[in-house]
Amino acid sequence: MRPTHLLTLAALATATTPSTLTDLCTDTVAQAALPASEFIQGITIDPSSITTNIVTNSSVSSNDYPSATISYCNVTFAYSHDGIAGDQVLLEIWLPAPSAFQNRWLSTGGGGYAINSGSSSLPGGIIYGAASGMTDGGFGSFSKQADSALLLANGTLNYEALYMFAYKAHHELSTLGKAFTRNIYGLTSTEKLYAYYQGCSEGGREGWSQVQRYGDEWDGAVIGAPAFRWSFQQTQHLYSNIVEKTLNHYPSPCEFDLIVNETITACDPLDGKTDGVVARTDLCLLDYNITTLIGKPYTCAASSFGSPAQNGTLSSETIEVAQTILNGLHDSNGKRVYFSYQPSAAFDDAETQYNSTTGTWGLDIDQLGGEYIALLVNKNGTTLSSLDGVTYDTLKEWIISGMLEYYSTLQTSWPDLTPFHSAGGKVLHYHGDADYSIPTASSVRFWESVRSTMYPKESYNASAEALNDWYRLYTVPGAGHCAPNDAMPNGPWPQTNLAVMIEWVEKGVVPTTLNATVLQGENEGQNQQLCAWPLRPLWADDGETLECVYDQRSIDSWHYDLDAVPLPVY
Ligand SMILES: *[C@@H]1O[C@H](CO)[C@@H](O)[C@H](O)[C@H]1NC(C)=O
Ligand SMILES: *[C@@H]1O[C@H](CO)[C@@H](O)[C@H](O)[C@H]1NC(C)=O
Ligand SMILES: *[C@@H]1O[C@H](CO)[C@@H](O)[C@H](O)[C@H]1NC(C)=O
Ligand SMILES: *[C@@H]1O[C@H](CO)[C@@H](O)[C@H](O)[C@H]1NC(C)=O
Ligand SMILES: *[C@@H]1O[C@H](CO)[C@@H](O)[C@H](O)[C@H]1NC(C)=O
Ligand SMILES: *[C@@H]1O[C@H](CO)[C@@H](O)[C@H](O)[C@H]1NC(C)=O
Ligand SMILES: *[C@@H]1O[C@H](CO)[C@@H](O)[C@H](O)[C@H]1NC(C)=O
Ligand SMILES: *[C@@H]1O[C@H](CO)[C@@H](O)[C@H](O)[C@H]1NC(C)=O
Ligand SMILES: *[C@@H]1O[C@H](CO)[C@@H](O)[C@H](O)[C@H]1NC(C)=O
Ligand SMILES: *[C@@H]1O[C@H](CO)[C@@H](O)[C@H](O)[C@H]1NC(C)=O
Ligand SMILES: [Ca+2]
Question: Are 252 and 322 in contact (CB under 8 A)?
C-alpha cells in the first residue's frame, strides 16, 4: 500500500509542476508544497494560513543589488512551536517564475532589532532566480522588531523570543524555505538547490549565527558589517557618551563634522591617490594626529533640528574628546577593553543635543547602546534615561557580564567554523572602512580569530591563504555603515556581492578582489576592485592601477590586545 501511495504522489508532483507564474501562484499549489509538519521536530505548519499573490514588473533598486524589474509570486504562511500557547511565526517567500528559477534559495536578514528588511532585500534573490525568504521571528508581524517581544515583564525576558532572534528563527526559515522551494518547483531528491544568505549589520550577525552553528544550511553567505560580539558591540555605542561625560565636554555636531572633513582631507593621499576617499584608514590611524586641528575655525548653518548657526574654533578639549573616542575603551587601570571606529568615520555615537534654554550642547544618550542596557541588562524598558554614575569601568562590567549572559545566543563570535567549511561553505564578508556604527576592526578581529582557531599550526601567510580559500574579508574604502558615504562620494560600493558569491559557489570563480561600483559622485558607474584582507589597497603612481599590498605595519594596527578582559575575545 505505502509504496504505491508514494509512487502516485511522485507521479502527481511531476505531472503538476507549474510552468508559469500564474500556475505556480495559487493557494492550492503553495499548500501542496508545504513540508510535512513533522519535517522539523516541534514545529506545526498551518496550511490554512497560506496567502499568495502575483507581483508583476516591479522596479527595484538598492545598494545591495543592481536595479531591475522583477515579477514574482509572494507566498506567506505561518507555523507554530509545539508547546508554546499562542505562538505563531510568519514566513514570506518570493518565488520567481518557473522559467526564471535557477535552483537557488536566498535567506535575508534584518538590521537594528529587526530580523528582516521588509521587501527591500528579497528582490536581491529574485534577480538571480532564487526563491527568497524572510521571517518575522514570531515577534507579531513582519514589521514588529525583536525588542518589542523580548521583555515579558520587568525582570523577565522572553527566552523563546531571545533564542528566535539570536539564531533559531533563521535556521527554521532556511530549513522550511528550502524544503518548500524544492517541493513547489518539483526538484528531485538528487537535484541541487544552492542556498545563499545576504544581510548586513544585525543581518550580518544573523548570517554569522548560522555559519557558526550549521554546516549544511547555506552554500554561500554574503555578510556585511556584522553586529556580532554582541555585548561588546552594543555597549561600545555608549563609550563616546561616557568620554564626553568623563571629560565634561560636549562638542557640537559641527565640530565633529569638521574633524571628520579634515581627517578625510589629510588622509586621502595616504592610499596613493587624492580622490576624496580614505582607502587606508590604517595609515591614517598610524600617521595622522588630530591635535594639529586645534584652533581650526568651523562654521555650520542653522539646522532644521532647531540648532542655530554655529561657528568657532576647535578647542583642545574638543580634540581630547575626539582623540579619546578614537583610542577606544580602556578601564580605569588603563587596560584596553575594546577598540573604536577608524579615523574618517563620522562620530555618530558622540552626537550631542542642543538645549535652546541654555544655548549649550549636552549629553544625548546613544539609542542603540542605551537600548541594550535597558532591555537586556537592566530588563526594564527599551530606553536608558540616564548615564549617571556610569564610568569606563561600568562599561567594562556590562561587556563582561553580557558576554557571560548571552554567550550562547546573541554574542555570535564562535570562531570554529569547521562544520560549515567541511560542508564546502563560502563566506564573503565586507565592512565599510568608515563605518560609524560597528568598528571595522571588529570584522578583522573575527577573521583573525577564525584563522588562528582553525589553522593554529600554520604560519600567518599559510593560514591566511588557507582561510581565504573559503572565507574572505574586504574593507570598503570610504564606505559608512552598510552603505556608501556622502562624505566620500567617490568611494566604491560592492553592489554585486550575491552575483560574485554565486560565481564562486557554482563556478569556482574565486573573488581574488571584490567587484565594486562607484554609486554616486563624479565617477558614478566606475568599476573598482576591493582588496581581500590581509592585503591592503594602494594606488600605483599612475593613479589608475590599484595594487593589493602586504603591509605588516598596517596589518598590526588592526590587532588589539584586549587585556582588560580576562577571557579570550574572538
Ligand atoms: C510586464 O512587462 C512586459 C515586458 O515589458 C510586458 O510584456 C507585460 O505586459 C508586462 N506585464 C504587466 C502585467 O504589466
Ligand atoms: C505579500 O503578502 C503579504 C500577506 O498577504 C502582504 O502583507 C504583503 O504586502 C505582500 N507583499 C507583496 C510585495 O505583495
Ligand atoms: C517596567 O518598569 C518601568 C518603570 O517603572 C515602567 O514604565 C514599565 O511600564 C514597566 N514595563 C513593564 C513591561 O512592566
Ligand atoms: C564637511 O564637508 C561637507 C562636504 O562633504 C560639507 O557639506 C560640510 O559643511 C563640512 N562641514 C564642516 C563643519 O565644515
Ligand atoms: C598627537 O600629538 C600630540 C601633541 O604632539 C601628542 O601629545 C599625542 O601623543 C599624539 N597622539 C597620538 C595618538 O599620536
Ligand atoms: C559667528 O556666530 C556669531 C553669533 O554666535 C555671529 O555674530 C558671527 O557673525 C558668526 N561669525 C561667522 C563668521 O559666521
Ligand atoms: C535645558 O536646560 C535647562 C536649564 O538647565 C533645563 O532645565 C532643561 O531640562 C534642559 N532641557 C533639556 C531638553 O535637556
Ligand atoms: C531598571 O533597572 C535598573 C537596574 O536594576 C535600575 O537601576 C533602574 O532604576 C530601573 N529603571 C526603572 C525605570 O525602573
Ligand atoms: C607573507 O606574504 C607576503 C606577500 O603576500 C610577503 O610580503 C611576506 O614577506 C610574507 N611573510 C612571511 C613571514 O613569509
Ligand atoms: C561587477 O560590477 C560591474 C559594475 O561595476 C557590473 O557591470 C558587473 O556585472 C559586475 N560583475 C559581477 C560578477 O556581477
Ligand atoms: Ca584616496
Answer: no
Q: Shortest CA distance to 135 belongs to which of 182, 99, 85, 177?
A: 177
For residue 152, give the ligand 3 atom closest to its CA: 13
**Residue 3 scores a pLDDT above 60:** no
- pTM score > 0.90 for this model? yes
Q: Which ligand is nearest to the CA of 157?
A: 3
Backbone angles phi, psi at 158, to 5 degrees: -90, 95
**Residue corresponding to grid cell 580634540:** 319
Closest CA to 113 of 140, 88, 94: 140
Confidence label for 6 from pLDDT (cuts 50, 70 and 90): very low
pLDDT digits (tens, 9 = 90+) for 403-446: 999 999 999 999 999 999 999 999 999 999 999 999 999 999 99
Residues 6+ apart with CB under 8 A from 46: 77, 78, 79, 80, 88
Ligand 4 centroid to 257 CA: how many Å? 7
Cα–Cα–Cα angle for 83, 154, 139, nearest 5°?
45
Cell of 212: 557558526
Nearest CA to ligand 7 atom 10: 355
Tell me the catalytic residues. Answer: 201, 435, 481
> Which pLDDT score, from 0 to 100, does residue 543 have?
86
pLDDT, position 17: 86
Measure 58 CA to ligand 1 centroid, in angstroms.
10
Packed helices 202-211 and 169-184: angle between N→C axes, nearest 10 degrees? 80
Phi, psi of 471 (to 5 degrees): -135, 110
Ligand 4 binding pocket includes 257 (Cβ within 6 Å): yes
> Is the predicted pLDDT of residue 270 greater than 50, yes or no?
yes
User: Which residues line the pocket of ligand 1, CB cutoff 6 A?
Assistant: 56-57
User: Is there a contact between 427 and 211 (Cβ–Cβ < 8 Å)?
Assistant: yes
Q: Which ligand is nearest to the CA of 316?
A: 5
Residue 4 confidence (pLDDT) above 80: no
Q: Write the CA distances from 513 to 60, 327, 475, integer angstroms.
A: 27, 30, 11
Residue 72 alpha carbon to ligand 1 centre in Å: 13
Name the residue type at position 261: N
pLDDT of residue 38: 79
Give the distance, in angstroms, between the CA of residue 126 and the centroid of all CA atoms in the same chain.
21
Whether 547 contacts 540, CB under 8 Å: yes
Segment 31-70, tens digit of pLDDT: 999 998 778 999 999 999 999 999 999 999 999 999 999 9
How many C-beta atoms lie closer than 10 Å to residue 23's C-beta? 14
**Best probe residue, ligand 5, of 291, 316, 327 (max atoms within 8 Å of C-beta):** 291
Min mean pLDDT across 300-314, 382-396, 454-468 is at 300-314
